[in-house]
Known about the structure:
The protein is mainly α.
Amino acid sequence: MNELTPELIALSARADDALARALPDESQPPVELHRAMRYAVLGGGKRLRPLLVYATGLAFDASLERLDSSAAAVEIIHAYSLVHDDLPAMDDDDLRRGRPTCHVAFGEAMAILAGDALQALAFEVLANDAMLATDASTHLRMLRTLAAACGSHGMAGGQAFDLAAVGQRLSPAELERMHVHKTGALIRASVRLGALAAGCRDEATLAALEHYGHAIGLAFQIRDDLLDIEAETAQLGKTAGKDVAANKPTYPAILGIEASRAELDALTKQALASVAPLGERARMLCDLARFVAARGN
């Protein structure tokens, strides 16, 4: 399945609405900072991470209203990470989602500030959710989940591994470690936040969802690496072939293209098997796993 289902498209639109409400009004000072923040977040994308929040929460009968703040928070974190990843000192990208990157549009200093402000906003959005305030212990657990996914043992640590790996020949285990942090941490957090918001407390179920998130996080990265060498810039919305040109370690470079495709298929099957005990309730999670594996085809 290389396109989202109508049900998931509707949830993606809901995430867009939640994000538009959460972001500061760009007519209010500091105007340029607020404009940069909205530009970074509302510039398109499939909203995979919010969709994982919604799909998981709905599997455990949560209301959409109870999931909105978590969905917005993870996507705001994701947007901040892209703003900073695109900076000249990091991946030095000029194109994101088919338009100039934030630092190209607003200048490097304003892009750094926009990323900083977005990270803070994500926690503010999640902390201020009145629907979650009735269960303080769960609310705190959710905030810890998001924080852990962002830090040195999560996304930021993964970026540090990535920077250190340029020009290096990594082993498959080292490559996996990098992406378990850089890409996978926020994807796993999205699944966990949806479950916690819905009131799921069963540790075995949470562990199964963690494995699902782990599998699709790596599957997402493998598909991304394959698209970087197989797709055109217009299709990707970012510069094609950038990873190869930058001599960055990727799954096709280390495993080969066919082995990468085989690993992608194996991870997708693992993800589906992890949520199989949920039966029909896991339908959207299964749809998302298939979409991650097939996107761009």
